Amino acid sequence: MDKVFLTRRHFSCHFHNLPSLLLIGAILFTLLVSPAFGQTEVQELAVVINALTHPDLGITASLSLIDLMEPNENRAVDNEILLFSTEVLNRRRAVGLSIHGHLAYIPTFNLPITGAASFGDSIFIVNLEDREIVGEIPIQDGTTPQQIALINEQKLYVTCAATHEVHVVDIPNRNVTKVLTGSFNKPTGITLLNGKAYVSNPAWEWNPAESRTIYYDSSVTVIDTETDLILKSIPVPTNASAIVNDGASTVILKTIGNYNDIPGHLILIDTATDEIVETVKLDFAPGASALNPQKQLFLQGSWQNPGLLIYDVAAQTWIRDEDDVIANFSNDADASISGGLTFAPDGSLYIIQPDWSGSGQDFVRVMDPMDASLLQTYHVGPGGSILGFAQIVPRREDINNDGFVNAEDLTIASRFLGDEGPGIVADVNGDQVVNVLDLVLIGFFND
Fold first, then answer.
1. Cα–Cα distance between 194 and 223 in angstroms, integer?
2. Residue 160 pLDDT more than 60?
């Protein structure tokens, strides 16, 4: 997934004389050195989607939160704090996760047991600080939304596999404004780099008459995120899957093959030309993967030879190949290293192992990739299989609580200008009066 970090930007208004600049500087200095200012408790969280839905066991998709600042592994986890459906028979699926600040965007849909089209397709918006669902963006029924890419504070993309589309969503108004079609085949993964979105198209279809999966020609679709125009379709090997980027100039795609005579591949795409610059044959169907800041791709191996492989994207060479996998933790060989992979901001590798039987053996294990040692083990909810990270810094400047500090917050705050008393939403600095100091703070923390 693509994580968005909170950043500080200086007040964007232009002042035309030195006294104005000095005044604003003095105001900011006074605020920033004030003992009461900036005393906020930062929360470091791992957010886990518990994806199992099991009507017979009364289990439905839910959310777990791990407090990464709590040393006690048992106390650190709040399991199943939110349910994405109260009706177990609906079999509601939660299949993706994108986090911005204190808000998580989670695509979901109800999948009937009969195999009929999905219904109730939507994106849930979860306030991670308050631990509540604060909104829902409806997506057309039958689309089965998959993965989300946050383009900016106004717009996001969501891949819709069943209808072979990418939907463009207006975040503030919580509705779909545009549907991109014509170049997708069961689109799933999506990543953003250098003003473009790269969408993976697995292009498979289940044939019930033959009781088998048919694979068509896979591709990566390139979209201009400014205009929403489709720029290119890049042919890739069979069954395109997870897609990520190195933050600079390369998109990395994993293909799985057909689990039989067609193996998987790693595909490197140069975003300057949108051409494939390297194709690495794997000779097996790869499992989960994750890229670290050193541009090393960690990859789950085959079921015949389980373990972690490491591919150096920058050098285009193997660090650990299939003949030299990390087979277990160096300090606990009995703990499984199979499962989903996600790198934390501190560089540690989180391995999430779901128990799809519903018997409760769902774990998140933390590995030090330097020596493959086991650092922590967390017990999470049923089918814990999707994980992301959130750094939550309480910000009173976000007046409308949408995850962004921008002109909308400034407009709302100006309506309270001059009001006095406790608990005013626009009283950013907490001095019980809304004045120019509050407006300056909103401008200073503008995203």
1. 11
2. yes
The structure tokens 């039987």 sit at 357
Which residue reads 């140069």 in tokens?
Answer: 270
8 A C-beta contact, residue 130 and residue 104: no
pLDDT tens, residue by residue, 260-271: 999 999 999 999
- Dmax over CA atoms of the chain, in Å, equals 79
Tens of pLDDT, residues 113-125: 777 899 999 999 9
Give the CA distances from residue 2 to residues 80, 96, 189, 342, in Å, rounded to whole numbers and listed in that order: 24, 12, 11, 11
If DSSP codes are grouped into helix, strand and coil, which group holds residue 336? coil
User: What domains are defined for the chain?
Assistant: 18-36+397-444 (1.10.1330), 43-288+385-392 (2.130.10.10)
Q: Using DSSP, how many helices (H) and how many strands (E) does the chain show?
A: 3, 31
| H or E segment and range at residue 327 | none
Q: Tell me the C-alpha distance between 83 and 74, whole Å.
A: 21
**Taking residues 281-306, what's their average pLDDT?**
94
Q: What is the C-alpha end-to-end distance of the chain, expressed in Å?
A: 21
Q: Which residues contact 324 (CB under 8 A, 6 or more apart)?
A: none
- For residue 114, the model assigns a pLDDT of 75
Query: Which 3 state secondary structure label does DSSP give 19?
Result: helix
Residues in the chain: 447
Torsion of CA 390, 393, 396, 400, to 10 degrees: -10
Tokens standing for residue 69 = 């600042």
Contact yes or no for 369/293 (Cβ under 8 A): no
DSSP conformational letter for 52: -
Buried b (16+ CB within 10 A) or exposed e, 228-260: bebebbbebbbbbbbbbbbeeebbbbbbbbbee
58 vs 441 pLDDT, higher one: 58
Coil, strand or helix at 57:
helix
For residue 114 the two structure tokens come to 């009969």
Judge contact between 45 and 392, C-beta under 8 A.
yes
Least confident of 53-67, 82-96, 418-432: 418-432
pTM: 0.85
Strand extents, DSSP E, 228-362:
230-235, 240-245, 250-255, 265-270, 275-281, 289-291, 296-300, 308-312, 317-320, 340-343, 349-353
Residue 127 clears pLDDT 90, i.e. is over it: yes
**Spatial CA neighbour of 362 closest among 338, 379, 387:** 379
